[in-house]
Amino acid sequence: MKRTLVVMLKEPRAGRVKTRLGRDIGMVAAAWWFRHQVRGLLRRIEDPGWDVVLAVSPDRAGLMSRVWPAHFARMAQGHGDLGDRMARALRAPPIGPVCVIGGDIPDINAARIAEAFAALGRRDAVFGPAPDGGYWLVGLRRGRAIPASLFTNVRWSTEHTLSDTEATLPDHSIAYVAMLNDVDTVMDLK
């Protein structure tokens, strides 16, 4: 079974990506930071141990974009809130373990991803927690059905995000990997 790593990405357009960071440093600077952060991230996570798929938004522009390296497979994120889009990303790849990450976590590398896939050898789900109560990675072994309620009633961007998401995985064994910071504000850049 092939392992798949899905990276959730928005086109790096001023005012459409990293808007909380943009309020601190300017929207153009935030888009520039995100574009270059993601390029570095994609170099660090590319590995023969898994397929990397870019889940892009907006759908049409993201699928045709020249911003991201062309050799990565792409899929449209589709409509809905973050939970709808992440659930789609977890269900879409061929059978096998799948992990989903965002593009705004500077400390992600191939070793961190390998750790998450290794955890899925022992558990049904894996999370990479973030200090703010959210998470930088979610993964599923997919050896059993993904609950229809996955990501339902999750309070996104709050200190409850991880615990709310765990509650949508009843009867699933859960593993945790390293805690990493994402970048939402200028304070997170330090």
Short description:
The chain has 190 residues and is of the alpha/beta class.
Morphology: globular
Strand order of the largest sheet: 3-2-1-4-6-5-7
| Structural class by SSE content | alpha/beta
Q: How many domains make up the coordinates?
A: 1
Distance between the termini: 39 Å
| Continuous helix count | 6
Query: Are there runs of 5+ residues with pLDDT below 50, and where?
Result: none
Secondary-structure element series = EHHEHEHEHEEHE
Mean pLDDT: 95
CATH superfamily: Spore Coat Polysaccharide Biosynthesis Protein SpsA, Chain A
CATH T-level topology: Spore Coat Polysaccharide Biosynthesis Protein SpsA, Chain A
CATH class: Alpha Beta
Determine Rg (CA atoms, Å): 16 Å
Indicate the percent of residues in helices. 25-40%
Total beta-strand segments? 7
Q: Indicate the CATH architecture.
A: Alpha-Beta Complex
Strand proportion, as a percent range, falls in 15-25%
Oligomer: single chain
The profile of the biggest β sheet is: 7 strands, mixed
